[in-house]
């Protein structure tokens, strides 16, 4: 795989590079937010490993700007912060996973494998439909009644998971694990927030309610039988 590592700490940068190269990956390095963004815009990487604390900006803004520029490359965040709120903020700006420093090198490799596996898994079925909803998984395009609707990376991945499990109840825990590979506190409203984002964007183009909340169980995407 081609992997970009954006990290200002030389010891961490060297460690990550060494570990990834031993696993037969090609690794490019960047020490700053601006340098990392430039490389991400110019090259089609398979994964981006991004530090939160950079000398000329923070990883939150870097990730958000990349998503705003429609760069859908999976992003793994590195940070010494362990608070759940920080992890949730990373996901809200479009990151795919999060690992805390200091980290086990085997976990680093496993998390990279997991996010690339999930990303590749989304491509198994090129087109997914549900009533007026249509998703081109390969091109990452979502349409409602023929109108293209912009989704963030996380919104798109959540929608694909719901469509692949249409007419079935899926729990918050199942969504967290299968869409983000993260185990959330069941009291968090993070999943509810993303469900509400999807509902709102669908409602802008359709009178039908596709996503229902099933009390104390989870959510269901109604598509008919």
From TrEMBL:
Record-annotated Response regulatory domain positions: 2-116
DNA-binding region: 125-223
The keyword Transcription regulation is assigned to this record: yes
Pfam families cross-referenced by the UniProt entry: Response_reg (PF00072), Trans_reg_C (PF00486)
Gene Ontology annotations for the cellular component aspect, listed alphabetically: cytosol; protein-DNA complex
Biological process according to GO: regulation of DNA-templated transcription
GO molecular-function terms, A-Z: phosphorelay response regulator activity; transcription cis-regulatory region binding
Record-listed 4-aspartylphosphate modification sites: 51
Name of protein: Two-component system, OmpR family, response regulator/two-component system, OmpR family, response regulator CiaR
Organism, as annotated: Fodinibius salinus
């Amino acid at each position: 795989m081609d992997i970009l590592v954006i990290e200002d700490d030389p010891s961490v940068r060297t460690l990550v590079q060494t570990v990834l190269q031993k696993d037969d990956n090609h690794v490019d390095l960047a020490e700053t937010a601006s340098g990392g963004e430039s490389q991400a815009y110019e090259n089609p990487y398979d994964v981006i490993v991004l530090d939160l604390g950079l000398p000329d900006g923070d990883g939150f803004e870097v990730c958000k700007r990349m998503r705003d520029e429609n760069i859908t490359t999976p992003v793994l965040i590195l940070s010494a912060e362990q608070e759940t709120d920080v992890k949730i903020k990373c996901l809200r700006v479009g990151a795919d996973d999060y690992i805390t420093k200091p980290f086990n090198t085997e976990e680093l490799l496993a998390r990279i494998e997991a996010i690339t596996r999930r990303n590749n898994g989304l491509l198994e079925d090129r087109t997914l439909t549900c009533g007026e909803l249509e998703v081109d998984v390969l091109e990452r395009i979502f349409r409602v009644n023929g109108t293209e609707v912009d989704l963030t990376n996380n919104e798109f991945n959540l929608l694909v998971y719901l469509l692949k499990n249409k007419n079935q109840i899926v729990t918050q825990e199942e969504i967290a694990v299968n869409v983000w590979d993260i185990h959330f506190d069941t009291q968090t409203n993070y999943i509810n927030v993303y469900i509400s984002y999807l509902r709102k964007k669908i409602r802008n183009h359709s009178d039908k309610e596709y996503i229902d909340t099933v009390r104390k169980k989870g959510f269901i995407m109604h598509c008919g039988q």
